[in-house]
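ok trying this again, last paste got cut off
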Amino acid sequence: MCVRASPGTGIPRSRFGSPKATSRRGSRACSPVKPVSSLRREGMGADTPTEGLLRRVDSDIRRAVAGQERAIIAFSGGLASLILAALVRKRCDVTCEVVGLPGSADAESAVVAEKFLDYPVRIVRPAPMNVLRAARAIASADARLSPPAALSLVPLALVEARHPRERILSGFGLTWDSSPVRSFLRSRSTILPGLQARTAAPPSRFRLLRVADLLGLPESFSRAARRTPAEGSGIGPSIRAMAHAEHASVARLLASGIPLHDYHGRAATRVIPKSSPVD
């Protein structure tokens, strides 16, 4: 069942008018997306750049999940992870793990995706100290990673740590254009559909929106505001708050020059604007 937005509300609804989730949670039979193999029959044009991208990503996913009954996706509710989840659940059952601090955009988007797209979602709310440890480990792994890039890799690293014996799927390969980020991602065991087959530049957001349209994803979901994993998960504001409490920059906090403290208090939950001088 494909869902659409109620006029003027932005709330997804079924074709029959009322908000509704499909009945069989996580079932491939409930998936609203169109089969990739049907695009040619529908006259979408097999040789367009959009369809070519879709076929490459779908081919990567097919190889990645072959023989598996379940796949775990590091999910954010953003455009790339929505496309990834839609394609993966055609081939096996899927669990979408979302790292999001309370009130974060990613956590809220995941709840909506679970309710209206029937995506099985598990929200992970990490302790601030675990966030800081993961960010420091990532920053120390590659000195070329900027603080914003290192923070955006934290949600993926936390999902990986929860499943050390399983390979996680992520939409990072469709969105990031930073050479240090690509190098870091290739050093992990995470499956990144679209990364190996693409050129140096990632697909444009316009191209990803066209892919979402071809898959039949509801516009109210695919047109969600763009956000980095650091900001969407709330990790960026949390780390900036820690740095602010230490009267330090985020770069210095991640450089491990400051001893770890107990950040469970207000300092870990205050929202420090992105333009704060502690950046």
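PB: full thing came through this time. The two ends are 45 Å apart (CA to CA).
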